[in-house]
Amino acid sequence: MLQSIEARTGNAVGERWAESTPSEIDAAVAAAASAADAFAATSASRRAGLLRGLASVLEAERESLVALADRETGLGLPRLNGELDRSTFQLRGFADVLEGGGAHTVIDDKAVAGAPPSGRPRLTRVRVPLGPVAMFSASNFPFAFSVLGGDTASALGAGCPVVVKAHPAHPELSRRTAALALRVIAAQGLPVGVFQFVQGGSIDVGVALVKATAIAAVAFTGSFKGGTALARIAGERARPIPFFGELGSVNPLVVLPAALEKNGVELAGTLAQSICVGAGQFCTSPGVILVLQDAAGDAFVQALAAALRDLKPHAMLSATIRATFERGVAQWRNASRLKPLVDDAGDASAAAPRPFLAETLAADFIDDHALHEEVFGCAALVVRVASIDEAVEVLKAIGGSLTVTLWGADQDAEPTRRLVRTAMQVAGRVLFSGVPTGVAVTAAQHHGGPFPASTQPFTTSVGYAAMDRFLRPVALQDAPAWLLDRQGVPA
Amino acid sequence: MLQSIEARTGNAVGERWAESTPSEIDAAVAAAASAADAFAATSASRRAGLLRGLASVLEAERESLVALADRETGLGLPRLNGELDRSTFQLRGFADVLEGGGAHTVIDDKAVAGAPPSGRPRLTRVRVPLGPVAMFSASNFPFAFSVLGGDTASALGAGCPVVVKAHPAHPELSRRTAALALRVIAAQGLPVGVFQFVQGGSIDVGVALVKATAIAAVAFTGSFKGGTALARIAGERARPIPFFGELGSVNPLVVLPAALEKNGVELAGTLAQSICVGAGQFCTSPGVILVLQDAAGDAFVQALAAALRDLKPHAMLSATIRATFERGVAQWRNASRLKPLVDDAGDASAAAPRPFLAETLAADFIDDHALHEEVFGCAALVVRVASIDEAVEVLKAIGGSLTVTLWGADQDAEPTRRLVRTAMQVAGRVLFSGVPTGVAVTAAQHHGGPFPASTQPFTTSVGYAAMDRFLRPVALQDAPAWLLDRQGVPA
């Protein structure tokens, strides 16, 4: 059963309702499949119109949606208004890309007379929508990574119907948002199968969706455990399908001496804020801080601990997420080679957690694989390194992350260059200033990275390249004029 | 043990030698890993020089290589000379792309002042080489899909060291080619780890390679069975890696009335040749021929059968492949709802097979999943369809193929449009004239397609986009001037 829960109090609000039954899931998938051909054949500008319509309805209903989101997630009105802005910006950004022709980049190689290999037929490379996409909403961004978030926007933009699996941590907001989406789709005269919606707190709903024969791809943002389990199911289907999973990350941040010389205390404050923003419930939350073992490093760690001690994170998204955080921190607390620096257990049963920070040495961190796993929430590990080369080894041990942040790499020098090279091997995004929390929606963005950050490290779930996940290349050989014309290619 | 076998006679030639031991495989992977950083840092023009050097050495040694390939594969001198031409064209084509800057396409989004979502930091999207690639050679193209074929060329072009797993059906040619490659690498002053070589007839060698921790991706061309088994292993690693597998295909070809009106008999002859070229040992060999149930269709099928009966395919690549073909044909021969049209068993133990053609009805084909599987060799099924819409259903049942060929789709009409749309959903390449055997090396080419044609349908193993498989995007946020400079981006 589903139930809307007030995040700050744990109180149930309103009625309980049933999760989607197997036959409802089948019907949702069947509706999406039956709409796929017609939707694939729509023009880019028609799909742009759909995305703009969805953005408009979110804005029109802003007040009630944000209030409801706040009740169910506890993330606060300023953040949630900003997140709604980001979602409408994203929907309109994809619309801009579609209107600019970006979804259908074509390579047209004219025929060359003569024998192969230099002689060739005409080959025209186009892209076709994959088909119905199963979209798994995340708990931590009730707008930007949920029902009408980036995955839905990019799949619809590509011409793929979407079957949304709502996140049970904000069920009422999800069904309200879905109802608005269906209103827009009806008003625009599109088939209802373009947008379908299922709900469920149990694993069965997601599994049924990933196994459904007509589903052509899965977009997922969530936990390592859930994501890898579903990815395996997607791979074991009679016809495996792409599973675009963003599974979170420890987001190492390396503090080099050059950064501390300038403004170490200020940076410590900035970092503490980034660790605790949204109660640490960001995929890009910095979880491993690499600091040199020197006096400036000691001072920075002290300043970071002091800044963190002063912060009061707000309530977490749900009691389950809160309990998982507490378990993660308890593991760190009991790890023999970790020294807690900030550890005010407070009331472990309260919805709002207390920040946690501990310190360890590079060699101990590298040895203990359990420490490489994300603790989702306002907790971080400081890893003290003897040298930049040891920092390189720590990054290599982590292996895959959405982001790596390097503070103080402004000057070209050999060890820095090695560090940058390693960061680029390990991460989908490498930052040289600022904090990793906050992901700009733009063409150059890449929100992905080597496993476990992403199950498909070549793809991004944020930014305009996100649409590439749902458009498969096809080469047309000696295509007739009428077909080229329909693809917008001069005959 | 490995042994060079004369394809036409089955006779052993020369010494036997041992397959690579686990420690030799480890050493090859370790050498590749140790070369990865330095090779990734080479300039595109340096890598272009390597590819040109490899092309030159193939040409310089053409006579002996082609003679050896002919002995081990039985494919004949004209075809093998052509295939060597294609391989050198391919190596030089990738070199051209590198010199034109195509491997390092950059998107540079300048910073925008103001609050998010419209305000943003500077984001520069670049691409980085993945790291060591395990490359599995195919049996059927001893140059173009083997040691220095397209996978090796594209991985080296991308800046990834390659560990080649030779195909045991042409072991002597493989080790000779590898020795030439190593000579070029030494002459160009590149680390020996850039190109490593392992050999083995047993499954263990390939499994060890896919499991090796330092391997970052696998490129594979081969059987469905071997490919899906290795893909699973790649996905079950502690850190899963991309498995770019091209697993072959039934390559449906649809003959529409408009094509038969013009030149049905000539087309039947062309198709027969395509079914038998290289004894049918092409990934793109047409294996399912869809023909309408009308008089023109009957005449076409008769002409196709007659043309096939006259053909004498050459010896197959190996006794194993020959025996597998015989088993596949036997299954078809015994299928109750298939009517054999061309079935001269000949001497089932001879190296050269006899063409096989059978006919069935669409409904029977759709029902029997065993018929959707490729029989590798000069065999095809004619599927008679009552209408174009029934042809659509047959294509949907096949589901994934490297190619679909549509003859007679020159005019825009509603059922044709549905057929074209379905073909584009099912295939990586859709042809409107000619035959699918023969894959041009060009920017627009796409040699892939929905599963089982490819395990990564967004990628191609032929054409210049093949390099994309080995270059992962990374977004640099507020990158320092020195780094942008190294990436060739104006600060």
From TrEMBL, chains A, B:
It comes from the Bacteria. Residues 15-412 form the Aldehyde dehydrogenase domain. Pfam families: Aldedh (PF00171). Keywords: Oxidoreductase. This is Aldehyde dehydrogenase (NADP(+)).
